[in-house]
Task: structure prediction
Amino acid sequence: MMCITTVLAVVMSFSAIAQPLQLHFRNVVDGKPIALEKDNYKNGLGQSYTVSNLKYYISNIQLTPESGKELTDSDYYLIREDDSASMNITLPHIPIGHYTRLTFSIGVDSLHNCSGAQSDALDPVNGMFWTWNTGYIFFKLEGKSSASKNPGSIYEYHIGGYKAPANCIRSVSIDLTGISLMPVIVLPPDTFHKKLKITGIDISADISKFMNAATPIDLTKISSVTDFHNAAKIADHYQQMFSLIKKDYGY
Amino acid sequence: MAIKKPIVISVLVFAIILLSNFTETNPYFTITEKDVAFEVPKGFPAPTYTFANNKPTPAGFTLGRRLFYDPILSKDSSTSCASCHQRIAAFAHIDHTLSHGISGLIGKRNVPPLQNLAWGQSFMWDGGVNHLEIQPLTPMANPIEMASDIGDVIRKLKRNPYYREAFKEAFGDTLISSERMLKAMAQFTGLMVSANSRYDKFMRHEDTLTQFELNGLVIFREKCAKCHREPLFTDESYKSSGLYPDSTLNDPGRELITGRIKDENTFKVPSLRNVAMTYPYMHDGRFRTLEQVLDHYSKGDYYMLNVTPELLATRDMNDLEKKEVIAFLKTLTDKTFLYDRRFADPTYH
Result:
C-alpha cells in the first residue's frame, strides 16, 4: 500500500519535474564523422570535396509538447566543427513528458543583427560577423574541391542576411513523435524501466545532404558565395541537412 | 645580464604606465561626469543611439578616446582611427581625396566627418553598417584600411598593462572583450555632438547672420534642404547627385548592400555641418572646394542613372546665389565642437 502511494505521487508530480535536456549536433558526411582537411568526399555530381571549416548558428529552439504550451529557448549557439564542446546545447529546464516536435532556426534573427556590440556566441571574434554589410554569417563551410575554379581550388560558403535581398534564416523542424523525455530518477525497476533513459537528442548535420539536397550544388559553378548572390539558394540547402539520429531513445 | 633584463623590462613597463596615466590626469584631458552627460540639443530630433545599454562614464569615455587614438587597432599597429579622422576637420581627413590605410594603401572613398553620430540611422557611404557600436569593426577589418582581425586586437589589448587597468576602471573587472571595447568607443564617438555653430546660435536667437548669409539660407532651404535636412543637414537617405562614375574606382555605392539596380551610384546624403572644414568633397573626394561642388550642382551636366530629381532645383543657380549659399554653409562651422578638449588626442603632445 505504501509503495503504491509513493509511485502514484511520483507519477502525479511528473509534469512538474524539469531536467536538463541536451541537443547533440553531430556534423557528418554521409553519416560518418567529418575528418577536417583530410578525407575526400563526393557530391551527387561526382565532384570531390574536403571540409576544412564548418560553423553555424542555432537559435530560437522550440519544443512542442503533446499538450500544453511550446517551450522556447532564447539563446544563440554557435556550433563549430573544430570545438567539440560547442556541439552540445543544454536546455536547462525541460519538463518531462511527451514531445511531438523540435524546431530551431539556422541563423540569427533581425533584432540581434541590429543590436550593436554583443558577447559570447554573438561576439564578432568568432569570425562569424560581416563588417562591410552589418550582420552575422549564419553558416560557414569551407574546403577544397578539384571542381572549383577558385585560386587554390577552394570553395567557400559564407551565408548570412536577415533581410532583402537575401533572407537566409531558415527554420528546421524535427518530428519527435513517440519519444518521451523522461527523468533520470531511480524508480522501482519494474514500473518505468526503459522510459528513464533519455537526457539528450542526437541531431545529424550531414554535409552530403547539404551538398546534394534536391539538386546537387555544382562546385564548378557555385564555389564561392560570400554575399547575397546565390545566398538564398545555399540557405535552402543547409535547411535540408538536419535530421534526427534514429536510436533507442527509451520509448 | 639574465638578471638585469627583467628589471629593465619592469622599469620600462612601469614608465609606460606612468606616462600613459600622466596624460589623462592632466586637467586638459581629465574627463568628469559633466563631460559625459549626453543632451539632445534644442531643436534636434530624438537620437537613434540612446546609450540605453551603455551609459557613458568618465572611465568608459576615456578608454574609448584612447582606443580611438591608438594604432594598436590596426594589423601592424601603424594606423589609428584618428589617422584618417582628424579632430581639426570635424574628424574627416583634410586634403585627402581617398582614405589611407596601412602600408600606404589607398581606399576607395573619402573619409566622412564624425559628428552627431547618435542620430545616424546607418553608417558608411553605402549605409552598410546598422549600429554605432559596431562601426569601428568595419575600418578595422578592411584590408585597405586597418587590416586587423578583431580577435588579434583583443589579444593585443589583453597583453597591454594600460588597457588591463583602463578596462577594469571602465567596467569594474579586468575582462577585455570586443563588446566592452566597442561600447567604450561608442561612448566616445556618440558624444561627438556638433550643435553650436553660428547657424545654431541664430536658430536659438543667440546670434545673427549677415544679410548675405541669410540670402544663402533662403536659397539653401529652397534648393538643398530636402536632402540636407535641418537640423542635421542630412535626411539619411541615399541619392545619386549626378556624378559621373570614376572608372578607376568602380564603386556601385548603395547597390553593393541592397543588390537593387535603383540603388546603383547612390550614396548616403552627407551632413553639411562643419562642411567648410571637411574638404575635399563627395564620396570620392573629387571636388576640392565648395565652389566646385556648387558648380557641379548648378551646371546640370548629370550622369543620369538613378539621378535624384531634387537636382532639378539646383540647376539654375547663378554665381551670386552660389556665393550666398557658400557663405551660409560657412556658418555651419562649429568651433565649440572643433576645439572641444574632450575629443583631443591624449597620447600626443
